[in-house]
Amino acid sequence: MQLKLELRSPEAIKKIIQASGHDVRIWAISGNDPLLAGEAADALRAQFKSQGIIERQVEVPDRSFDWKGWLAASGTGSLFSEQRLMDLRLPTGKPGIEGSKSIQAWCARPPADVTLLVSLPRADKAMLGSSWFNALDEAGVVIMVPDLYRSDLPNWISQRLRSAGLSATPDAIAWLCDQCEGNLMAAHQEILKMALHHEQKDQALDLDDVRQLITDVARFSPFLFSEAVLTGDAARAVRILRGLQAEAAPLPLVLWSLAEDLRMLARTEQLTSQGRSADAAIREARIPRPKERLIAARLRKGAANKTWRALRQTAEVDTIAKGLKNDDPWVALERLAIEFA
Length: 341
Hints:
The protein is an alpha/beta fold. Helix content is 58%, strand content 9%. The protein contains 17 helices and 6 strands. The longest helix has 23 residues, at 251-273. The chain is globular, with a radius of gyration of 23 Å.
């Protein structure tokens, strides 16, 4: 059973456990952000501990991992406690052939005295279609940790500030979003730091307070640049792009991410021009779930001519990057982002 984690609710994990039942012995957490996925796993482990599951065994399989031994050990009783937690972490989301067979065997006959917790990256199409993932889904609960969009960041930061006993003015929160975008772990740490150093808890932090207490911890990915371009936020797109350039991010990856999103948008725009509704076009174009909201928002703007022009510009940037045209590809990408907005 797949359940989406509600990031706005501090009691989300408890609600999921209550809805699933306390007898579930197989759990999985799937998400890319280390803070959000890590906090979900911590909350689950805390719930297990409250149920008397104290002993924990952590495994991070590599190529030489003994899957058969791992499976056999699960059926061996513990000398120290009646219940155990098997904490299995798969950073790549690819257990291999032996791992796949072992996970399926576990799910087919789960040990009565062992709870399994599997930590996974965000489930892509290949993972969702795998036999071992479907076995986890059928035998237990898979908690899907969603990505946090830029538009969700102000509410998330406000919630974190309230949890730390703080509040901030809207302009201070907006500045915090710019400084911490793409790095939620650092944002969390900075909020904890502000809670330690800001003594007047009853007064909202203003922009000057926040600037004195925080450092610029933003870290950008090529996918954030594409998101900013499609939302039409030129200032943010340029800021992200310059950050990527300063961090020596690979230009081909930045360009590929943008071109892929633009092609998805072009397909859906073509389908809507043929009479499909936005929802039907998104389904027919097979837009990945994490991109649906972004594409739907852009469809409402109805500017298909801009999409095709931007696609032609990505081809031009590719030509510049290969040295076939005299220009700066990073500057050309900035022009594309500004014109598309």
